[in-house]
Predict the structure.
Amino acid sequence: MRMMGFGRDDTKETPDMVIPQVNEILEPVKSLVRVRFETFDRELTYFNDLFNLKEGDRVFVSGKLAGKVGYITSVTTKFRIRLSDYERVIAVAQTPVHGSYVPVMDKMLSYDSIALSPDEFRTWFFHPEEPVDGPEEIIYGDGYVIPLDDPHKAEGATPPVFDRALEYCRTGKIGYVSVRDGVGRAYVAGSEWYELEFTIRNNAIQEAYCSCPYAGLCKHLLAVAIMLSVMAGNGKLDLTRDFVLIDTNRFYEMIRHNEQAVTV
């Protein structure tokens, strides 16, 4: 089929990868940290007095780069500064990954109830603080329906949008998908990260919405539908079960920061 051929095809049995959860809460340690923002190719120094930080931690900061995630390249506790000269570290991404995972194409799959939740994944790419006036009210219409036996049949799945969706599948833009009790959430990387919501019923994605500004059925929703369709069609994903899928590259980036060793 036209939609086949993206990602890895894992034909060998692979042992479950068990990722232990880390619950220890460390006391804050005052420090000066260097934070690199890859999107802007910049590395800046920030003051921290809220967390016990280490190299590799992903953080959010105050100042001009507020709301943008960066990662720490160095930490020092030996300093004397004028506090007014420095912006601060104000939040840290939730890094522990837990559950058992197996590779499926270019994703890591888990059926565990303790697998990484959407809200935990979200902290890696979205600032955790709500706006001062509270969360913005979201109003929904009918949403889109995308048949998982053939996403081509979805209303609004024009050839240009479908081709872009295929490219998103091939290039690993789908960072995360979770389905619990038929309710799905996903995160897809475009010009920024977009949040998707949907349900799965009768072998179709239904009530599908995306936070991107595109007015019609967007490439982000179609990409998720295509990926699930291919995985299920190849017998690599059971859509009747709760599951979590994480992009393999992002998965290994996350577990690199775990305090305990990963066992295979």
